[in-house]
Here is the input.
Amino acid sequence: MMATKEFDATAVKAPDTARALEADEINFSYGRLQVLFGVSLYVDAAEALALLGTNGAGKTTLLRVLAVLVPGGRAVFADMTVDENLELQALTVRHRTDWVRQRREEIYDLFPRLAERLRQPAGSLSGGEQQQVALAKAILLDPSVLCIDELSLGLAPIVVQELLEVVRRINATGVAVVLVEQSLNIASELCTRAVFMEKGLVRFEGRPSELLERDDLARAVFLGSSGEGTK
Here is the structure.
């Protein structure tokens, strides 16, 4: 089904100097099915923002709309080594050998686990390690905002903690992070502000600890239904 976007003229605004991203009154439909209803969102520079909600709330759709503004390379080429994946990504940004070499070294400082596996085919890595390759490729594009969808999905808790530490290091370099999560606990470990969505609408915005005090919304995060309809 063809997706149609219904943006008005003020839907996407140039952020002010204190913000990395700002969007106002976003409406989005898949064909005749509207899934976002006037959603407004901002991300401050170097902020870590959690985008929470049950399955079908519209958070993944919102992330995809935002990704139009903040494009990122997410694909991992399974037959290529980790180093080849990163080199190819870097070359899409700048065709200078010295710059590519410097950026790869910086990436390996940020992702020490990948430095240990740089000659290994990306397809042979664990799920968490492949997530790190995808994150590293996105960082090579020098984004001001990094959008991450379901960081913890299908991964063991110890792997999730390792990924969270990587994202913390990325955030500490000044890159803003938007983390789509269903786990309020995981989001609270990384993010200082949370937005809760339900049925395509923003129901809450504030600190994750404040969301925990809202029994009706917190229960929806922890006990949300499985299988995302509108995403």
